[in-house]
Amino acid sequence: MKKILLTMLLVLATTCLMAQPYMPMSQFGADTLNYLKYNFETRKSQYIGYKLEKIINDYELEMKNVNYTGPYVNAYKDDLTGISISHITIRESLHRWNNENPMIKFRIKFESPYANRWLTENSAPLFNTERERALYIKDKIVKDIEVYVYSSHKDPPPQPPPNPPFNTTPSPLPKYTVSIIIDGNGTVTGAGQYQASSKVTLTATPVFGHTFTGWQGDITSTANPFTVSSITGNMNITATFTSTLPPTNPGDDGGNNNPKLPKKDLELTPLQ
After folding, report:
1. I need a surface site. Which of 55, 82, 109, 204 has the fewest CB within 10 A?
2. Which residues of 85-110 are buried (b: 16+ CB within 10 A; e: fewer)?
3. Domain boundaries, the chain
């Protein structure tokens, strides 16, 4: 029974971890350490076993320094066992090292078989950007991910005060209202409230003897139904219907008031 319970707890914990969503850099302000730790270390199970390309596609920071890493046996037998990605340049790294300032390290380890580090660095074409350098080995399978603060201090550097907890739940999308005004005789479906970026379909149905002639207001079209592919704000729309019935029959005056019928004299009958 204990084994079953433990297995269920492990499955539940794994499921919760897998359900953690990627959070964009905008959610962290200027806190690159927490951005890297949450998305790529806390959520590392989202990347382990997958190609490096998946991390490159999600990584929002500018890649200013990409280093191939491996055991340094000699120049001809090094295995390319991983990659180190930094959002600061080599010059900035040296400046921080000389001034004993901490730096963020973002390292990715690969599964074997490894590429030859020397051949990869010297046989690769010239790269225009560091992202191109990383993409050159995009098919390598990720084994592990580390994000940590590194410093030239002999003793561990003092840790910065903890950051206030950030909200890992995405903010709900705003809602917008689609209002319909009907001009004529007919009905329209599709009015109401929608979340931002939702698709909205408006369908006009005229009553007997009428036809739908078009939409006006925030949209101008005669299409029916009409689809708004992505709503971005409140919308006020008028649906116009026009009668197709013929003119009404002439009255009891024998047609004298109907310009389309010939005039005729009225006969007066004297009272008895």
Report:
1. 109
2. bbbbeeeebeebeeeeebebebbbeb
3. 24-150, 175-243
